[in-house]
Amino acid sequence: MSETPAGSAEIVGGFQFVDVPTSQVDQWEADSVPVADAARRLNEALIRSRAEGEELRSIAKELEGLVERLEATAHAGPAGVRYNAEGRSWEWGNAAVGLRNVVAPPMTTEFTSTESVRGEAVLGAAYEGPPGMVHGGVSALLLDQVMGKTASRHHTQFTFTGTLTMKYLQPLPLGPVEVLGRIDRQEGRKVFVVASIGTPGSVAVSAEGIFIKPAWAEADAAAAAVNAD
Amino acid sequence: MSETPAGSAEIVGGFQFVDVPTSQVDQWEADSVPVADAARRLNEALIRSRAEGEELRSIAKELEGLVERLEATAHAGPAGVRYNAEGRSWEWGNAAVGLRNVVAPPMTTEFTSTESVRGEAVLGAAYEGPPGMVHGGVSALLLDQVMGKTASRHHTQFTFTGTLTMKYLQPLPLGPVEVLGRIDRQEGRKVFVVASIGTPGSVAVSAEGIFIKPAWAEADAAAAAVNAD
Questions:
Q1: What does pTM read for this prediction?
Q2: Is A98 within 8 Å of chain B by CB?
Q3: How far is B87 from chain A (nearest CA, A)?
Q4: Beta-strand (E) ranges in chain B?
């Protein structure tokens, strides 16, 4: 991943412009799928394994070897959000949607209109809270991600989370989940979003959020240029 | 991990009694630390690595081999919450505190009184939301975990999350974080908890929650027997 051509400074984290075509980003992401999938399956197997002392130590050693190989070409610091000249952006370290991040299921999201978003994920053993159920905080994580995306009004405005309120209506079993968000209204720099997580036809957690457009984010045209996903 | 002595049925997930002494559980947990640490470092290295096609495929293959080894002795289904006769419990699959779960930082928590809890975690690149900052939903996850533990009034009552409200006061940079929770009041089966996440002396997100003791959870004595952590 030649992100730092000779002579150009590397910005760690932040919103970073990377001068590569979208086809290259797509290729990087396609290449990431097998290894990220394997890492997620490793996590699930680790949670459920009955392996003990000696076997665990041996596996830890093998993992250390793989860590070294990945570190050999790693950039310092978190992934940040990167984008190219075509407006394609990618945030592989994002805790909810980061392709390469075992913390993320990952959830995939799409705009169903300029004011609504649909997300879906399959939540396995790694997302457990009460036995066999999705952790209430994981529901909050996915809701926050979808609501933030929704508040962007199809990437035409930049916002921060102001307030989130979640009502836990019924337990959500581990497995496939659907997250829906829509803009309820906007009052100046405040965007009111409503959302839910559950399975099709059944809401487990309903949410309301107020997202704030910071005073400096006047440049809507600039935001529109960053067209994620 | 000989959790299923000959003749005993294995309950997948759920609250499962396992007849082993606390010293054995402590040993299992100590044995888990190196491999879980390595798995977390693998995740961070994967997020930040510039390795491409061939190298990623090779690493994926090695990971698959490790998945097979862990699967060979894995029990089916999620980890659930397990406990022994001494009241020691463990939930390795928990998304916030699960020792063996890469999704969890993990956060460590302790009761600072029967009505208050303090948690801490170090949030690396895998917990990113806005560039260089903790994902708002990750704050929610850790707050929910601490608030739920707080509502248990030092494990003397069992509750579910009813409602959570979070106010995002300022961005929270990746790094060490502190989560504080305390019971504000209790009205019948409703427990009102307040909490915050930030760094010592600086609150990034403040939260209020209502936790509900289900009607069937009358057996406070039974709950008191399950003394987690």
A1: 0.87
A2: yes
A3: 17
A4: 15-17, 81-83, 89-90, 108-113, 116-123, 160-168, 175-187, 190-199, 202-212
